[in-house]
TrEMBL record:
PANTHER family: COPPER TRANSPORT PROTEIN, SOLUTE CARRIER FAMILY 31 COPPER TRANSPORTERS. Its main location: membrane. Residues 96-120 are annotated as: Disordered. Keywords: Copper, Copper transport, Ion transport, Membrane, Transmembrane, Transmembrane helix, Transport. The chain crosses the membrane at residues 52-70. It comes from Sordaria brevicollis. One of its GO terms (cellular component) is membrane. GO terms for molecular function: copper ion transmembrane transporter activity. It is a multi-pass membrane protein. Belongs to the copper transporter (Ctr) (TC 1.A.56) family. SLC31A subfamily. This is Copper transport protein. It is found in: Membrane.
Amino acid sequence: MAQQTSHPLMPRMDMGHADMDGPACKISMLWNWYTIDACFIHSSWQITTRGAFAATCIGIMLMVVLLEFLRCLAKEYDEWIVRDFRRRSALIKDQQRRLRQSSSGSTSTSTSTSTRGSCPGKIAATASVVESKGGYISTSKTTTLKFRASPLQQLIRAVIHAVMFGLGYLIMLLAMYYNGYVIISILIGALIGKFLCDWLTVQFEIHGGDEEEDVDAPGFTDEVPRQQGVEEATVCCG
């Protein structure tokens, strides 16, 4: 019997596990353009028709788009939590300011009552100091506020992260089949996902000038931001 030998430079082919009646899976660890009989992830995911292969490529593109969407969603959700923290800190700061105003008001009233009939120069000096500082005595104390996400918010962040991790791992496994069509589908999905779900928007505040000068000036007007894309953008995940 003639013994079969393989060339040392010939790529090793893993035919996978297929049924005895059906064709074997085409799997290669080198760059390939397999379409029919190509298998991915599991032997049950075997391409039998060109339509099934096209559906596979479209599904892979949608997986990558979904991954980009989840990335943007996670970023937007974290920013929403931070905005909520800032709102709560502003309320706490306003409450502290009102308490200082009320305490300083009562202090100035008691001081003016106790010094009635004494030197009028001291009374005027005390009143001017209170008025110059906005009705309350300013202090240099700094209050540090530390917020933590609630258990529900942290659970939502963890679920989004887990789904992102799983999708990324599946996309990596699909890319490791070195199928040219699959890799092109991944790149197209990344392009579409970045274009739709991660639209760069920057907000600026422009101060200064009178209303008449703003209308007549050739700078930013109500129409210029619409033409230049500086208006409020509504991205797919915001």
